[in-house]
Amino acid sequence: MEKRGEFSARGNNFLFCLYIGDDTLKVEFEEKETAKKWLGDFTAQYIETMTQKTNNFKKFPTFVKMLISALEKNSESVMLDIYTVQELDILKNSRRPQGNQAPIDPKLSMKRYMILTYLVEFDKVHYPLPLLYQEAPDIDALQRTIIRLRNEIDQYKQNLPEGDLLKIIEENQEIKQKIKKIEHNQALAAVPRKGAVEIDTLIKESKALEEENDILKLEGSKEAKILRKKNEDLQVEFDRIKSEMEIIISQLEEENEEKLEIRNIKIKVENLEEELEKAKIQENQAKETLFQSQEELDKLKESDRKQKMRIKELENELQSVLRARSSRGSSPVPSKTYGVNNRLNRSPASRSPGSAGRFSPKSSQGSSRSNSRPGSDRVAQRNSPGYRNRSPGASPASSINRRINSPGNQQRTPPGRRDSPGNRKSSPALQYSPNAGARRNNRTTEEEKPIRKKSPKANGADVSDIDARLARLQELLKRQKA
Description:
The protein has helices at about 45-55, 60-70, 85-95, 105-110, 140-160, 160-190, 195-330, 340-345, 355-360, 360-365, 375-380, 385-390, 395-405, 405-410, 415-420, 430, 435-480; strands at about 1-10, 10-20, 25-30, 35-45, 80-85, 110-120, 125-135. The protein is of the alpha+beta class. The protein folds into three domains: about 1-135, DNA double-strand break repair and VJ recombination XRCC4, N-terminal (Dna Repair Protein Xrcc4, Chain: A, domain 1, Beta Complex), CATH 2.170.210; about 160-305; about 330-420 and about 435-480, no CATH class. The protein has a seven-stranded antiparallel sheet. It starts with a strand and ends with a helix. InterPro entries: CCDC61_N (IPR049733).
């Protein structure tokens, strides 16, 4: 339900509007001269709690009826008044002893209190309700104010006494005409007439017309003053309404400008949010790319580490092959009594002329090249530091097995020495016979003769086999580095 009307309190005129719901009450008060507005929004529970604190409980519907009756001034038992914070402080201080008054907050100075007074027999109850000042009225309230002002203007225009004014003007014209007739009759009266009776009647009519003219003048002047006063009041009211409308229009224009600015700001914020989302997506893509690159880098590092380990293994295998070749080059036919290390430790004097020639300078090697073993230059080249850094492709175990099972190695050992029971360490004859050492020495000296005759061929086959393996290892090493 909605209730509207005018209300005057302590010399101030207000326009009120009540919005009454099932359990809500909304109050609006607008000062008529300044267009300032105060609002109050209350629930049924709040109002009933407030009435209970006054020790005079009222239900929500009863309180609403009392408020409407006070606004319309239909009952003498209820009254309504509006106070400021300063006025309430003055009322409180008048009842209490005077003391230091605390300063009032400027924000609270615009606040108003609507106090409903209920007069009971031998008692008076006050129901206060706070009203907040509305600094920036909304568009709906401004539109309602404009409609109300337009309706008031139409009502004032309709109440203008245009018909009465026209009547007064017409009466004045008639009076003027009658005065002219009287003056004309007086002029004629100066001329002698036939009868004195006619003159007396004319004089009486003239006097009556003069009296009537005076009465009409008085009435016309009074009506004119009243009309003039009304016109002035209407002009003042019209000017006030016009100024209020200009203020409202300016406020609406400012609000429209603020709305446009807010809309532009919202558009900018939305654009920035879209750019931020795009930046986040790009950042996530960059992180994924970086993560993939890091994984690829880790894989490459692991592959590089494996390649380095493989190269190191190949280098070790190459060095072992070179050491084995150099040891075989120093002693072509290994004996079972002495190993490779014993052959390397022999003195140069005990070596054969061919081996001594291999370790001679290059100048002497040129003259004795026919007596040296084939492949000795390649042995010196492979023993160089630059060549040792290369790694073969096969593992040390596989190269050693191939070297042991090669035809050159099988040719070095006579058939009689391979599977002879006398050569086995587990043979009882070798372990317990007192003449085992002598027999072994004799056997060694007897067997060395045919072996030394065959050593150049066997040594050449061994060197060629090692050269082939070294070439294969070099190719594998080049492929691995590439």
